[in-house]
Amino acid sequence: MENLRSRLGKCIIFGLKPAQVDEAGAILRVLAREWRELLAGSEGFLVGFNGHVNNTRYIRYAESGRVNWAQNYAKYHDTAHRKEWEDLCTSRGNGMILRSIKTDFKFPMSWPDRVSVYHKLHSPPSNAADSFTLDVLILSERHQRIVARCVEEIVVYNYRRGEKTSLQPFMLEQFGQTWRDQEKAKRENGTKASELVERVECLEKNSWNREGAVEDTGSS
After folding, report:
1. Lowest pLDDT segment from 10-24, 52-66, 187-201
2. Confidence band (pLDDT; 50, 70, 90) for 62?
3. 3-state SS assignment for residue 154
4. CB of 123 within 8 A of CB of 166?
5. In terms of Cα–Cα distance, which of 136, 123, 113, 141 is closest to 36?
6. Alpha helices of the chain — where are they, by DSSP H?
7. Looking at the whole model, is its pTM more than 0.70?
8. Which tens digit of pLDDT belongs to each residue from 7-44?
9. Average pLDDT value for the chain
10. How far is CA 140 from the centre of its chain?
């Protein structure tokens, strides 16, 4: 998805017919409007659910995004357990502890820029589990591309007893729904992304990549 604009640019520079120019413009409008959904949503990240934007500082992106991810359950998705969700980000009762994080940097950012950070469940929730894994996607707002990927392993810890504890029923219920929503987003946005790629390929095959194609250099 990240190279579709440059591929469209090559078609436009080579020379397109009026109808093809309209098609290229339509694709570019979709890319400009829905780039987060196409990049993150096609992998199952719920763009409308857990997005978090910070100024570029290169630190704590994943951590602040994870807190926002948990707080969204409290605010929007499971208000009946608002306090429990909020406590997960504290040491008052059952809380989330980061056991490990792995980061794969994809693209160097430079100021000024902003990032969007998205979290998703790595796998369906398990009843007996005392931990869960989150995939993290960090996007550059300026460049509209992936900056880094992280994998976080989170332990649920009972601060009162000083030991790990199993995921609570309310967490399992919400994580189950989130997993289903992720899979739905992956299917829907993946289909949309594939359709856009096919439309770009069609423009390429009918412009610079067609047999006997000659670049339109304009009239002298």
Report:
1. 52-66
2. confident
3. strand
4. no
5. 141
6. 4-14, 18-39, 47-50, 61-72, 82-87, 169-205
7. yes
8. 999 999 999 999 999 999 999 999 999 999 999 999 99
9. 89
10. 11
Mark 83-93 as b/e (b = at least 16 C-beta within 10 Å): ebbebbbeeee
Q: Which residues pair with 132 in a beta bridge?
A: 154
Q: How far apart are CA 137 and CA 40, in angstroms?
A: 7
Q: Check if the beta carbon of residue 41 is closer than 8 Å to that of residue 185.
A: yes
How far apart are the C-alpha atoms of 9 and 207, rounded to whole Å? 12
Alpha helices (H) along 40-145: 47-50, 61-72, 82-87
Q: Which residue in 206, 207, 203, 216 sits closest to 28, CA to CA?
A: 203
What is the rounded CA–CA span in Å between residue 160 and residue 167?
16
N-term to C-term CA, the chain: 37
Q: Are 27 and 172 in contact (CB under 8 A)?
A: no
Please write the tens of the pLDDT for every residue from 153-183: 999 999 999 999 999 999 999 999 999 999 9
pLDDT surpassing 70 at residue 220: no
Q: Extract the tokens encoding 74.
A: 């409290």
* Polymer length of the chain: 220
The span from the CA of 153 to the CA of 73, in Å, is 19
State the angle between helix axes of 169-205 and 4-14 in degrees (0 to 180), rounded to the nearest 10. Answer: 20
Q: Spell out the residues 6+ positions from residue 134 whose beta carbon is closer than 8 angstroms to its own.
A: 66, 69, 119, 120, 121, 122, 151, 152, 154
